[in-house]
Design brief:
37% of the residues lie in helices and 12% in strands. It is an alpha/beta fold and 505 residues long. The longest helix has 30 residues, at 7-36.
Length: 505
């Protein structure tokens, strides 16, 4: 019940009567908090947000009106970048992309999720709001709350918005939350042919190679510019793959729940490489801003012995585990000069960074993150439990470390103590205010000049309706890849080595 990732599962295990009672209680609690919230509570939040505003002229509008791909790299951690196993590069395609001359890559970027991992990551990515300390904000508040989310903001700028995911639409309440965020289209598992074939699925949905290839039939019809989020799942615990999908040996740490991670990560990399090849041959590559992010850790701290072997460390410290929370973050586009950015940041900072590059002023909205590419960026990265990391301090699992050398700080100077206290105070307020915004639905009181909140009742994710609407829109706007290719599909340009699809031919 506390996981609450899918109401269908609650019905299955609680029964209709149990689910009804639980749902009634949850709704009562949420309604009570919402009724108590007043517009004046927003003022202190806005004052805090105003103190964090950034200015970034260098990158503002650098990729204005570009198509946007957000590629969600399930459970992928930063240590896997440039990682070799048995003298073989595990992520050759992602490594190449990470070091590309047009990719800005961040090597001090952290996940900031709590219990609800992917759900929390999506909340931060799309809204620059933290997830909740317990439970899923998407499940508890996604249906009813008001949001200033990426799809809604970019819709105002003429973007077509879509999320693509090879799992059931109800998971994490996406089918309702995405309407509140302003997604025009949500292409979930039932949109994909033969989606229920056992050989096409692994773990939490369709295998990445099959899912990404089949997604092209919808991507090619999106009127441009578009904002498309692609959620992969194969690199999700328990890291299941068929033998014929394995192209690399497993680790041999003695921890079976960890050892196959390297294989599913490699599979994800191969799927990504195939997708990038399609973007290049279809003409989308140079027309797009491509954002990659790891949503959360794949290997938890409970596996210390295995982590020691994976990292080749004889002694693993809590400071090492803090750095193990880093995930990849990359921004790629033809007008960007690539480099490795050592700035400290996290998932809460993605949206303001993205909007600035697209020429949309992030300071117009209530965001808790700040633009990673701005000199004013706040480099104190808050973790959901109140710990944090900054260029000065790493507070993790009850200990405080000097970030630059990893040594435990047992006694601080007066200057260090003042700086630490300021950073901890900021983290506490940031988390508390973000919770207030969600639990009190405070964004319903926020009305930036000229910005109109969407009507969530406008959206319908039923397949027949969505396909009809998509065809109507592309005929009207006449600028989708499919239309520009004289109404001829580009799916044949996509090449995959997925053996399941070869067997289909």
């Amino acid at each position: 019940m506390t996981r609450s990732f899918d109401n269908n599962y609650l019905v299955k295990y609680l029964g209709m009567d149990g689910y009804f009672i639980d749902n009634l209680y949850q709704n009562s609690e949420q309604s009570s908090m919402k009724e108590k919230a007043k517009p004046k509570e927003l003022k202190k939040v806005l004052k805090f947000i105003k103190s964090k505003k950034t200015h970034d002229i260098e990158y503002f509008g650098k990729e204005k009106n570009k198509d946007v791909f957000i590629i969600h790299l399930e459970s992928l951690q930063q240590f896997m970048i440039d990682y070799k196993y048995e003298r073989k590069e595990v992520l050759p395609n992602l490594d190449k992309f990470y070091h590309d001359k047009h990719t800005i890559s961040f090597d001090n970027f952290y996940h900031q999720v709590a219990q609800r991992k992917t759900s929390d990551a999506e909340m931060m990515l799309e809204n620059s709001l933290f997830g909740l300390p317990t439970g899923s904000a998407m499940v508890s508040y996604g249906t009813q709350d008001t949001f200033d989310a990426a799809p809604e903001i970019l819709d105002e700028k003429g973007y077509t918005t879509a999320s693509l995911h090879g799992d059931v639409p109800t998971f994490w309440n996406r089918d309702n939350t995405y309407k509140s965020w302003g997604y025009e289209y949500f292409f979930s598992k039932n949109y994909y042919p033969d989606n229920n074939k056992d050989s096409f699925n692994a773990g939490y949905g369709m295998k990445d190679k099959i899912f990404m290839k089949d997604s092209v039939s919808y991507i090619q019809k999106l009127p441009q510019p578009f904002y498309a989020k692609i959620i992969t799942v194969t690199n999700h615990y328990p890291y299941d793959l068929n033998k014929y999908d394995e192209d690399i040996s497993s680790w041999h740490t003695g921890d079976n729940s960890v050892d196959h991670y390297v294989q599913t990560a490699h599979y994800l990399d191969e799927a990504f490489g195939e997708f990038i090849n399609y973007l290049k041959v279809s003409g989308l590559y140079n027309k797009s801003l491509i954002v990659l992010y790891g949503d959360h850790y794949g290997i938890s701290n409970n596996h210390r012995a295995a982590i020691s072997k994976i990292l080749n460390k004889s002694k693993l410290t809590d400071y090492d585990l803090a750095n193990f929370q880093k995930v990849p973050f990359m921004i790629h586009a033809s007008n960007l000069k690539g480099f490795t950015d050592h700035t400290y940041g996290g998932e809460i900072d993605v949206l303001p960074t993205l909007l600035n590059i697209l020429g949309v002023n992030p300071n117009r909205y209530l965001f808790f993150g700040t633009d990673l590419l701005s000199k004013d960026h706040d480099q104190t990265v808050a973790f959901r439990d109140g710990d944090f990391v900054s260029p000065e301090f790493t507070k993790y699992l009850g200990n405080i470390y000097n970030t630059s050398n990893g040594l435990t700080i047992k006694k601080m100077s007066k200057t260090e103590q003042t700086s630490y206290d300021q950073q901890q105070s900021e983290v506490n307020r940031e988390l508390s205010y973000s919770d207030d915004v969600l639990t009190g639905d405070l964004l319903r009181f926020y009305h930036p000049k000229g910005f109109k909140h969407i009507d969530k009742d406008h959206f319908n994710y039923q397949k027949a309706h969505a396909i009809k609407e998509l065809n109507r829109e592309q005929d009207k706007r006449k600028n989708s890849i499919y239309y520009l290719n004289k109404d001829k599909s580009t799916v044949h340009l996509y090449h995959t080595d997925a053996p399941e699809l070869k067997d289909e031919k």
